[in-house]
Amino acid sequence: MPSCKNKYLFRAVNEHLTHNGVDIVDFVLYTVYPTAAFFLVGFIAKKTGLRQVFTYLIQAVICFVFAAVYYVVIPLGGADGLAIILALFGGLLLFMARKQKIQQEQQNTGEI
Fold first, then answer.
1. Fewest beta carbons less than 10 Å away: which of 5, 70, 82, 107?
2. pTM surpassing 0.85?
3. pLDDT per residue over 28-60, tens digit each?
């Protein structure tokens, strides 16, 4: 417990600051897990020759799954911001997959 003259300051700070149960180390790990899965899919796709469209789709699904799990499982909204970013990134990957598919169709028909 703090000294007598600082106990009011200590109490005021503790009453106004909230802790959501997620430490900074946990948050960094929550960031590393989807990143590792994302790059692992890219590496495997490159080694196996998987088409870019399917790579984007798989990576988008990974982002959406991590976003949903983080939103539901992490207590007190500790990773809601990260879940939102992952969901937005998943949406961006879907648009990239669509663009890649359209470009492949144009190349196959000879239109550029």
1. 5
2. no
3. 999 999 999 999 999 999 999 999 999 999 999
